[in-house]
Amino acid sequence: MERFSSLTGLLAPRSVAIIGASSDPTRIGGRPIAAMLRRGFQGRIMPVNPNRATVQDLPAFASIADLPEVPDVAIVAVPAEAAVAAVEELAGRGVKGAIVFSAAFAEVGAEGAALQARMAAAARVGGMRLLGPNALGAFNDRIGFYGIFSASLETGYPPPGRIGIASQSGAYGTHVFAVARERRLGTPVCVTTGNEADVTVGDVIGWMAEDPDIDVITAYLEGIRDAESFLAALEAARAAKKPVVVMKVGRSRLGQAAARSHTASIAGDDAVTDAVLAEYGAVRARTTEELLDIAQLATRRIYPARNTLGVITVSGGAGVLVSDAAEELGLAMPPMPVAAQERLTRLLPYAAPANPVDCTAQALNDISLVGQFTEAMVADGDYSSVLAFFTHTGWAASIASGLRRELGGVRTRHPDRLYVLSVLASPELVAGYEAEGFSVYGDPTRATVAIAAMGKFGAAFAHEPGLPPPDVPPITLPAETPNEAEAKRLLAEAGIAAAPERACTTAEAAVEAASAFGFPVVMKILSPDILHKSEIGGVLLDVATADDVRAGFALLIERARHHAPDARLEGVLVAKQLNGGVECILGIHRDPVFGPIAMFGLGGIFVEVMRDVAFRRCPFGEDVADEMIRSIKAAPLLLGARGRPPADIPALARMLARLSVLAYQAGPRLTSIDLNPVVALPAGEGAYALDAVIELGAH
Amino acid sequence: MERFSSLTGLLAPRSVAIIGASSDPTRIGGRPIAAMLRRGFQGRIMPVNPNRATVQDLPAFASIADLPEVPDVAIVAVPAEAAVAAVEELAGRGVKGAIVFSAAFAEVGAEGAALQARMAAAARVGGMRLLGPNALGAFNDRIGFYGIFSASLETGYPPPGRIGIASQSGAYGTHVFAVARERRLGTPVCVTTGNEADVTVGDVIGWMAEDPDIDVITAYLEGIRDAESFLAALEAARAAKKPVVVMKVGRSRLGQAAARSHTASIAGDDAVTDAVLAEYGAVRARTTEELLDIAQLATRRIYPARNTLGVITVSGGAGVLVSDAAEELGLAMPPMPVAAQERLTRLLPYAAPANPVDCTAQALNDISLVGQFTEAMVADGDYSSVLAFFTHTGWAASIASGLRRELGGVRTRHPDRLYVLSVLASPELVAGYEAEGFSVYGDPTRATVAIAAMGKFGAAFAHEPGLPPPDVPPITLPAETPNEAEAKRLLAEAGIAAAPERACTTAEAAVEAASAFGFPVVMKILSPDILHKSEIGGVLLDVATADDVRAGFALLIERARHHAPDARLEGVLVAKQLNGGVECILGIHRDPVFGPIAMFGLGGIFVEVMRDVAFRRCPFGEDVADEMIRSIKAAPLLLGARGRPPADIPALARMLARLSVLAYQAGPRLTSIDLNPVVALPAGEGAYALDAVIELGAH
């Protein structure tokens, strides 16, 4: 595959030119050279500067044309106009990659955007990959390559390690690098993408997924520009069993983006990104610390497909604290087998042997007890993850060495488990524990969050391909936005059932339809121009007699004329009223990046007020639809809470999967679909759309 | 007041006896002596040991009787039986306080509990305060007093500071101390309460509230044993404007406690503790780090009553990250005034001047810009809190001193604001920033959480006393659990209205009642023995004709006989059916610690499935009831979401406040009240209980 290998010239070059090279090691054109000299870059470094014979003691060249060889990568650190010319020239010479520091492009307005487009076009034509413009740059410490001008290098370089950083923000990407360095976590490769005229953060993630020396990928996202490369990168990472930990900002703007359809206004692109990350098993971190907590543990490369946590603690309180956190995170903490509990109680009468296993401070008086307890947890409890809370006792001279020996013994006998220590100790002691295979966190809650993430990765890595999306005959979208009856006809072709109904142009036809369906019926205005009927009183429920049908017909026509005098009126829709089910909403909206997105939630209140919804990129199979339905908080209502009969979830899942295929096949003209409500009848009785709105964009 | 001053002998003693004193400084009876000698305890230390003339070079005494003076406090470090005898003897000699390390009391079973009761009784009779038993103990570093045997002292003592630790767990309390010490946060007083035979964590919080040298109180809670002292302590802390930060474990056990009534089973005591903490403005931390993050910032003693946050950043991404966190925390981030924004843009064209104010890395080239920007945020933006994100640039030699100077200037001119820095820097540099009044956090999200907490404290400290609970005539509880009609009569006496209804013993009486109210009506089984009628089909809605009333009467009687053959049947209740309102649940359950607790939520699904409820200790006024109603997530449904008319919230609030007074006055025999549903009609039309269940305990 290696679809991302075109970035290798950029990120692992064998030779570098610096356009706008400076002798001052703190200037933007000087920092990369100083850093590469400092870190011993093995390849040739070729400063380009028309005014100097040498730059930082290296022979300099007057122009790109004067370069004695074609570099793998060129760093461009000259003003915008000159940068465009430089990129054009570099591409012409066959350079594989350019890192453009220069600013004043798309980020400052239309004129800059035009300049950026010119630059990108030149690179594309020349087959050159372009990082930036307006990028802080990238480094690859393994070869001493520093195509970056960050001040963070003033305080040090990355220690050894196997964590990559892919960031859309230069300041934030190097912040993560600096925090990691303080924590002694090695981030040998850090790439910040700036304006993303060519190389996107997805490309970078993908390149790291293929890089044999990176095990864990951390990413900072503000918004995805190119779905294709981003999804391919996430899939490449999953296939390579490399965890991707994501910091995505902009949660609070959820719902602010102006969106045309009802469903889209609920979605917001942040929720969609969430759904996409979950689909590929990438884990979203809430804070920078969490990002690195998860990355730190992930470097152990142990990802339990079915994660269970056993906690051994000298503080009952800390045990409860961890249990609280684990439950919130959905991390299982099953109890120890009863026989093992009894054995532990014989060893130490006041221990609490269930899980958390509280060995109490007593165990510290005979440290071999800690070993026996932990061994029992792994051998008998069979936990895939063990968290040992020993607080300051992990530091105490009288305890630390015994603790290391005892826990180390268990680890040697069972190396396939995750071992996490929550201790307070000197940096040296912590480094010792880490070297022996224990990941150390001072705070037990943070340890628990990291452990839970390993299970999410493991589940994603182990995940078998699910059911294929169902076969749905391709539909032909009409020329104009369809009315409700037409919309339902289209949906019926895809196997999505509505309640029995008939379009009626006279009151007598309505009475006839109602008599055929049986009373009560629902009556609705039928017009392609009135999308949200209930707002103008255009829906009548519980119409129970023929006389009421006649009166209702007149009333609906009157209301439509009054509230929407210009709307085309096509009569009244009469439908059988379905009682006794659970009302749901199924929807589609078109995300500008990820295309059609399906939504599932319960009746309007749950969606609009409680925001209790599930999203998923289209298309998908019934297994995914079933997961979506069961994932909402209110799912118990469908499963039979409060004495209700369980709803027909297979029918709902079938409808949702078919809807996803329909939306996927319909192409970009389909703006949104709202099936609101869909009534899910009791198990075996099906699910029916009571209303359907399909919105189309221009041809 | 000084109601907690009886703890002073325990926690700030002038002389100490150690019963079971040991020469070994690592033994339980040796550690306190070693620590006091090390920290220069000023008072007399009197080891008691029958076998030695000296202990750790101090003259020892053979017995309590041999003590040359009555110590303020005695530390008891002998086995359980001997400890009881020692306490009896100490109390007899007039000692003011005892700290009992000894274990094997209530924590090991009934026999130990009896022993503990004997010990507590002896102390009480002698007027002696007792900490423990099974307590790790307490320290007060300001006077060098160490009545504690924690191994955490092996690695150091607290640095100077003004944070107190009150903990029900010894291991966890000293864990907090050790983490704080690593962070250079001073916790001069740490008290762990063990089995709480006498002194509770509430007493300790109260004592710290009255201690002039403690500014901030951190507390670890597993469960409150004594509501009275706990509430008095929280009130004392609030009155003294001392923040209380709480770690309360056991969230995940919510709902597990077996509770008799419907409402109680929803509550669980964790939610009640939450409500009590919120009532007094104590802030609950989710993690140990958060506990200390909040305590750290609180030592600045700036608690904005109306907190607003201004963010200045060199990374746009970090700005968005903070905005996300602030919105989730309910911390306002209003934009800068337009004129000020224009001025800043003139200073630095590429800056984003709204809020977050992104001064970009450009500002670092002329560091005076950072000063001008920050000054504008305080002077023009008038933010009460300023968060400055400078990541690793706060460490760079070229920037740090200028940054300190510029930010320091703003702080000197406006010392009444909270200044928080998010920088990565050496411990020395961080200490320098801290000394100049900037609280430093590496992680910007953690900084934001701490800032938000200061506003919660400020709001609580500024809070005026609210409305008094309404006058409600005292009700007389009946001898037996009342049926629905009786329950509604009782509630009516308190001014709580039910829908018009009539108890009917014959079908014809039911028809007459229905005709009087007007159709449709609701019909329900009337029996004191059938509490949850709907589960047996004992409720009929939409009964629309006289014939249906007759049929319904027969059906209900038949169902009652079938499902509950032993129940006393008192007929059928006929009530007017109220349509068009919002269904709510109002409830009372009796918490074993805090007494009657009121609950508010929307109709059953929202309470049972979504857990969207508000709790409050009874009694309270209509202002508090109004807050409760508006605090639930689904509140928009009452305020007019989805085109509904707004509900009559004043009527709901009146009902809830009256219910709280009724429950308070009713005394401990009242187990629970369920008003489910209550229909809140549109504004001005009132709120009516449609069903009422009152459960009473034994006399």
TrEMBL record, chains A, B:
SUPFAM superfamilies: Glutathione synthetase ATP-binding domain-like (SSF56059), NAD(P)-binding Rossmann-fold domains (SSF51735), Succinyl-CoA synthetase domains (SSF52210)
Pfam families, alphabetized: ATP-grasp_5, CoA_binding_2, Succ_CoA_lig
Domain annotation ATP-grasp: ranges: 488-524
UniProt keyword list: ATP-binding, Nucleotide-binding, Tricarboxylic acid cycle
InterPro entries according to UniProt: ATP-grasp, ATP_grasp_subdomain_1, CoA-bd, NAD(P)-bd_dom_sf, Succ_CoA_lig_flav_dom, Succinyl-CoA_synth-like
Family statement: In the N-terminal section; belongs to the acetate CoA ligase alpha subunit family.
Protein's name in the database: Pimeloyl-CoA synthetase
Source organism (scientific name): Aliidongia dinghuensis
Lineage of the species this protein comes from: Bacteria, Pseudomonadati, Pseudomonadota, Alphaproteobacteria, Rhodospirillales
